[in-house]
Protein backbone atom coordinates (compact mmCIF):
# COMPACT_ATOMS: atom_id res chain seq x y z
CA UNK A 1 0.00 0.00 0.00
CA UNK A 2 1.17 3.52 -0.79
CA UNK A 3 0.53 5.78 2.21
CA UNK A 4 0.90 9.54 2.39
CA UNK A 5 -0.98 12.78 2.86
CA UNK A 6 -1.57 15.21 -0.04
CA UNK A 7 1.52 16.32 -2.01
CA UNK A 8 3.77 13.72 -0.38
CA UNK A 9 5.23 12.49 -3.68
CA UNK A 10 3.25 9.27 -4.18
CA UNK A 11 2.13 9.89 -7.78
CA UNK A 12 5.58 11.11 -8.89
CA UNK A 13 7.11 7.93 -7.48
CA UNK A 14 4.65 5.68 -9.31
CA UNK A 15 5.22 7.60 -12.55
CA UNK A 16 9.01 7.24 -12.28
CA UNK A 17 8.59 3.58 -11.29
CA UNK A 18 6.47 2.92 -14.38
CA UNK A 19 9.06 4.62 -16.58
CA UNK A 20 11.84 2.52 -15.05
CA UNK A 21 9.93 -0.72 -15.55
CA UNK A 22 9.50 0.18 -19.21
CA UNK A 23 13.12 1.16 -19.84
CA UNK A 24 15.65 -1.18 -21.46
CA UNK A 25 18.01 -0.89 -18.48
CA UNK A 26 18.36 -3.74 -16.03
CA UNK A 27 16.81 -2.90 -12.63
CA UNK A 28 16.35 -4.67 -9.33
CA UNK A 29 12.79 -5.25 -10.54
CA UNK A 30 11.79 -5.66 -14.19
CA UNK A 31 8.35 -5.71 -15.77
CA UNK A 32 6.88 -9.05 -16.84
CA UNK A 33 3.17 -8.33 -17.29
CA UNK A 34 1.81 -4.75 -17.36
CA UNK A 35 -1.44 -3.63 -15.68
CA UNK A 36 -4.67 -4.11 -17.62
CA UNK A 37 -5.36 -0.38 -17.44
CA UNK A 38 -2.18 1.63 -18.04
CA UNK A 39 -3.80 4.98 -18.77
CA UNK A 40 -3.31 6.42 -15.29
CA UNK A 41 0.37 5.45 -15.23
CA UNK A 42 1.00 6.60 -18.80
CA UNK A 43 -0.53 10.01 -18.13
CA UNK A 44 1.54 10.44 -14.97
CA UNK A 45 4.71 9.38 -16.80
CA UNK A 46 4.03 11.82 -19.66
CA UNK A 47 3.71 14.71 -17.22
CA UNK A 48 6.94 13.67 -15.53
CA UNK A 49 8.73 13.52 -18.88
CA UNK A 50 7.44 16.99 -19.75
CA UNK A 51 8.59 18.41 -16.40
CA UNK A 52 5.04 18.96 -15.21
CA UNK A 53 3.80 18.37 -11.70
CA UNK A 54 1.51 15.35 -11.34
CA UNK A 55 -2.24 15.79 -11.33
CA UNK A 56 -3.55 15.12 -7.85
CA UNK A 57 -5.30 11.82 -7.47
CA UNK A 58 -9.00 12.48 -6.63
CA UNK A 59 -10.62 10.87 -3.61
CA UNK A 60 -10.41 7.36 -5.07
CA UNK A 61 -8.69 4.03 -4.44
CA UNK A 62 -6.61 3.09 -7.46
CA UNK A 63 -4.85 -0.27 -7.60
CA UNK A 64 -1.87 -0.74 -9.91
CA UNK A 65 -1.57 -4.49 -10.53
CA UNK A 66 1.28 -6.01 -12.52
CA UNK A 67 3.81 -8.83 -12.53
CA UNK A 68 7.49 -8.06 -12.01
CA UNK A 69 10.62 -10.18 -11.85
CA UNK A 70 13.57 -9.97 -9.49
CA UNK A 71 17.21 -10.14 -10.56
CA UNK A 72 17.19 -13.92 -10.17
CA UNK A 73 14.14 -14.23 -12.44
CA UNK A 74 11.53 -14.86 -9.75
CA UNK A 75 8.14 -13.55 -10.92
CA UNK A 76 6.06 -11.68 -8.34
CA UNK A 77 2.48 -10.42 -8.55
CA UNK A 78 2.36 -6.82 -7.33
CA UNK A 79 -0.76 -4.86 -6.43
CA UNK A 80 -0.09 -1.30 -5.31
CA UNK A 81 -3.18 0.56 -4.06
CA UNK A 82 -2.54 4.26 -4.78
CA UNK A 83 -4.86 6.00 -2.34
CA UNK A 84 -5.53 9.72 -2.59
CA UNK A 85 -3.83 11.72 0.16
CA UNK A 86 -7.11 13.55 0.79
CA UNK A 87 -8.69 10.24 1.82
CA UNK A 88 -6.07 9.77 4.50
CA UNK A 89 -6.83 13.28 5.74
CA UNK A 90 -10.52 12.37 5.82
CA UNK A 91 -9.80 9.22 7.84
CA UNK A 92 -7.88 11.27 10.41
CA UNK A 93 -10.51 13.96 10.72
CA UNK A 94 -13.59 11.70 10.82
CA UNK A 95 -11.92 8.88 12.82
CA UNK A 96 -13.30 6.23 10.49
CA UNK A 97 -12.46 4.58 7.19
CA UNK A 98 -14.44 2.63 4.62
CA UNK A 99 -14.98 -1.11 4.43
CA UNK A 100 -13.14 -1.06 1.09
CA UNK A 101 -10.06 0.44 2.72
CA UNK A 102 -10.31 -1.97 5.64
CA UNK A 103 -10.36 -4.85 3.18
CA UNK A 104 -7.11 -3.55 1.65
CA UNK A 105 -5.54 -3.34 5.10
CA UNK A 106 -6.35 -6.99 5.74
CA UNK A 107 -4.71 -8.05 2.45
CA UNK A 108 -1.52 -6.01 2.77
CA UNK A 109 1.92 -7.56 2.44
CA UNK A 110 3.83 -4.29 2.91
CA UNK A 111 3.48 -0.51 3.21
CA UNK A 112 5.29 2.41 1.60
CA UNK A 113 4.79 5.64 3.55
CA UNK A 114 5.74 8.96 1.92
CA UNK A 115 6.88 12.24 3.49
CA UNK A 116 7.89 15.30 1.48
CA UNK A 117 11.25 16.66 2.66
CA UNK A 118 9.94 20.24 2.60
CA UNK A 119 6.42 19.64 3.86
CA UNK A 120 7.23 18.19 7.27
CA UNK A 121 7.01 20.71 10.08
CA UNK A 122 9.80 21.14 12.59
CA UNK A 123 9.81 18.71 15.55
CA UNK A 124 6.87 18.97 17.94
CA UNK A 125 6.82 22.23 19.87
CA UNK A 126 4.97 23.18 23.05
CA UNK A 127 2.21 24.54 20.85
CA UNK A 128 1.97 21.17 19.07
CA UNK A 129 1.73 19.37 22.41
CA UNK A 130 -0.97 21.78 23.48
CA UNK A 131 -2.94 21.04 20.31
CA UNK A 132 -2.64 17.33 21.00
CA UNK A 133 -3.91 17.88 24.55
CA UNK A 134 -6.95 19.66 23.12
CA UNK A 135 -7.51 16.84 20.63
CA UNK A 136 -7.53 14.40 23.54
CA UNK A 137 -10.29 16.37 25.23
CA UNK A 138 -8.31 18.79 27.36
CA UNK A 139 -7.83 22.50 27.07
CA UNK A 140 -4.84 24.80 27.24
CA UNK A 141 -4.57 28.48 27.91
CA UNK A 142 -2.88 30.71 25.36
CA UNK A 143 -0.62 33.56 26.35
CA UNK A 144 -3.66 35.84 26.21
CA UNK A 145 -5.61 33.59 28.56
CA UNK A 146 -8.05 32.36 25.92
CA UNK A 147 -8.83 28.67 25.65
CA UNK A 148 -7.36 26.99 22.55
CA UNK A 149 -10.12 24.38 22.60
CA UNK A 150 -12.37 26.67 20.58
CA UNK A 151 -9.86 27.19 17.76
CA UNK A 152 -8.14 23.85 17.28
CA UNK A 153 -9.30 21.59 14.44
CA UNK A 154 -8.20 18.02 13.60
CA UNK A 155 -6.92 19.04 10.17
CA UNK A 156 -4.34 21.33 11.81
CA UNK A 157 -2.63 18.46 13.63
CA UNK A 158 1.07 17.94 12.77
CA UNK A 159 1.80 15.63 9.84
CA UNK A 160 3.73 13.21 12.04
CA UNK A 161 0.73 12.77 14.32
CA UNK A 162 -1.53 11.89 11.38
CA UNK A 163 0.93 9.36 9.96
CA UNK A 164 1.61 7.67 13.30
CA UNK A 165 -2.12 7.47 13.97
CA UNK A 166 -2.70 5.85 10.57
CA UNK A 167 0.07 3.30 11.11
CA UNK A 168 -1.26 2.55 14.58
CA UNK A 169 -4.71 1.92 13.16
CA UNK A 170 -3.29 -0.46 10.55
CA UNK A 171 -1.45 -2.25 13.34
CA UNK A 172 -4.63 -2.41 15.42
CA UNK A 173 -6.79 -3.77 12.59
CA UNK A 174 -4.31 -6.49 11.60
CA UNK A 175 -3.26 -7.51 15.10
CA UNK A 176 0.20 -8.33 16.49
CA UNK A 177 0.39 -11.72 14.77
CA UNK A 178 0.34 -10.17 11.28
CA UNK A 179 3.21 -7.64 11.17
CA UNK A 180 4.25 -5.86 8.00
CA UNK A 181 7.38 -4.54 6.34
CA UNK A 182 7.49 -0.76 5.97
CA UNK A 183 9.51 1.40 3.57
CA UNK A 184 9.64 5.08 4.57
CA UNK A 185 10.24 7.23 1.47
CA UNK A 186 11.35 10.83 1.95
CA UNK A 187 10.48 12.50 -1.34
CA UNK A 188 12.22 15.54 -2.89
CA UNK A 189 15.48 14.11 -1.60
CA UNK A 190 17.44 16.29 -4.04
CA UNK A 191 16.69 19.20 -1.69
CA UNK A 192 18.39 17.58 1.30
CA UNK A 193 22.13 18.05 1.75
CA UNK A 194 24.78 16.19 3.75
CA UNK A 195 22.42 13.82 5.53
CA UNK A 196 21.38 10.18 5.36
CA UNK A 197 17.65 9.40 5.20
CA UNK A 198 17.56 7.73 8.64
CA UNK A 199 19.23 10.78 10.18
CA UNK A 200 16.75 13.10 8.46
CA UNK A 201 13.87 11.09 9.92
CA UNK A 202 15.36 11.31 13.43
CA UNK A 203 15.80 15.07 13.15
CA UNK A 204 12.77 16.13 11.16
CA UNK A 205 10.14 13.56 12.13
CA UNK A 206 11.19 12.35 15.60
CA UNK A 207 7.70 11.23 16.62
CA UNK A 208 7.44 8.91 13.61
CA UNK A 209 11.04 7.76 14.07
CA UNK A 210 10.51 6.90 17.74
CA UNK A 211 7.25 5.13 17.03
CA UNK A 212 8.85 2.94 14.36
CA UNK A 213 11.84 2.26 16.61
CA UNK A 214 9.60 0.93 19.37
CA UNK A 215 6.72 -0.71 17.51
CA UNK A 216 7.32 -4.44 17.20
CA UNK A 217 4.69 -4.58 14.46
CA UNK A 218 6.90 -2.42 12.20
CA UNK A 219 10.23 -3.91 13.26
CA UNK A 220 11.08 -4.56 9.59
CA UNK A 221 11.37 -1.01 8.32
CA UNK A 222 13.89 0.93 6.27
CA UNK A 223 14.21 4.60 5.36
CA UNK A 224 14.92 5.80 1.81
CA UNK A 225 15.48 9.24 0.34
CA UNK A 226 13.92 9.47 -3.12
CA UNK A 227 13.85 12.18 -5.75
CA UNK A 228 11.39 10.86 -8.33
CA UNK A 229 11.51 14.11 -10.31
CA UNK A 230 15.29 14.46 -10.12
CA UNK A 231 15.15 18.13 -9.20
CA UNK A 232 12.99 21.24 -9.15
CA UNK A 233 11.01 21.67 -12.38
CA UNK A 234 11.50 25.45 -12.23
CA UNK A 235 15.06 26.03 -11.06
CA UNK A 236 16.58 22.85 -12.57
CA UNK A 237 14.60 22.80 -15.82
CA UNK A 238 17.58 23.25 -18.14
CA UNK A 239 19.43 20.40 -16.44
CA UNK A 240 16.50 17.99 -16.44
CA UNK A 241 15.09 18.63 -19.91
CA UNK A 242 15.52 15.77 -22.36
CA UNK A 243 16.52 13.21 -19.72
CA UNK A 244 14.33 10.15 -19.29
CA UNK A 245 12.47 10.30 -15.93
CA UNK A 246 13.94 7.05 -14.63
CA UNK A 247 17.46 8.26 -15.50
CA UNK A 248 17.22 11.46 -13.44
CA UNK A 249 15.90 9.68 -10.34
CA UNK A 250 17.95 9.76 -7.12
CA UNK A 251 17.62 7.10 -4.40
CA UNK A 252 19.55 6.96 -1.12
CA UNK A 253 19.42 4.72 1.94
CA UNK A 254 21.84 3.16 4.45
CA UNK A 255 24.92 4.20 2.51
CA UNK A 256 23.30 3.41 -0.86
CA UNK A 257 23.22 6.00 -3.63
CA UNK A 258 21.66 4.97 -6.94
CA UNK A 259 19.15 5.94 -9.58
CA UNK A 260 17.07 2.76 -9.45
CA UNK A 261 13.57 3.80 -8.40
CA UNK A 262 12.63 0.13 -7.95
CA UNK A 263 15.02 -0.23 -4.98
CA UNK A 264 12.52 0.64 -2.20
CA UNK A 265 9.84 -1.63 -3.65
CA UNK A 266 12.35 -4.45 -4.22
CA UNK A 267 13.45 -4.21 -0.58
CA UNK A 268 9.86 -4.23 0.62
CA UNK A 269 8.62 -7.24 -1.36
CA UNK A 270 11.84 -9.29 -1.42
CA UNK A 271 14.05 -8.39 1.54
CA UNK A 272 11.87 -6.98 4.31
The overall strand count is 9
Helical fraction equals 25-40%
CATH architecture of the largest domain: 3-Layer(aba) Sandwich
The dominant shape is: globular
Report the mean per-residue pLDDT as an integer: 85
Determine the CATH superfamily of the largest domain: P-loop containing nucleotide triphosphate hydrolases
How would you characterize this protein structure?
The protein is an alpha/beta fold. It has two domains: 234 residues, P-loop containing nucleotide triphosphate hydrolases (Rossmann fold); 28 residues, no CATH class. It contains ten helices and nine strands. The strands form two sheets. A six-stranded mixed β-sheet has the order 1-5-6-7-8-9, sandwiched between helices. β3 and β4 form a beta hairpin. α7 crosses α8. The two termini are 14 Å apart.
Write the layout of secondary structure elements.
Elements: E1 2-3, H1 10-21, E2 29-33, H2 39-49, E3 61-70, E4 75-83, H3 85-94, H4 99-107, E5 110-116, H5 126-135, H6 159-174, E6 181-187, H7 197-204, H8 206-214, E7 221-227, H9 237-240, E8 250-253, E9 256-258, H10 263-271
Parallel strand pairs: 1-5, 5-6, 6-7
Antiparallel strand pairs: 2-3, 3-4, 7-8, 8-9
In short:
The chain has 272 residues and is α/β, with parallel strands linked by helices.
Task: Describe the structure using short key phrases.
272 residues, alpha/beta, Rossmann fold, 2 domains, six-stranded mixed β-sheet, three-stranded antiparallel β-sheet, globular
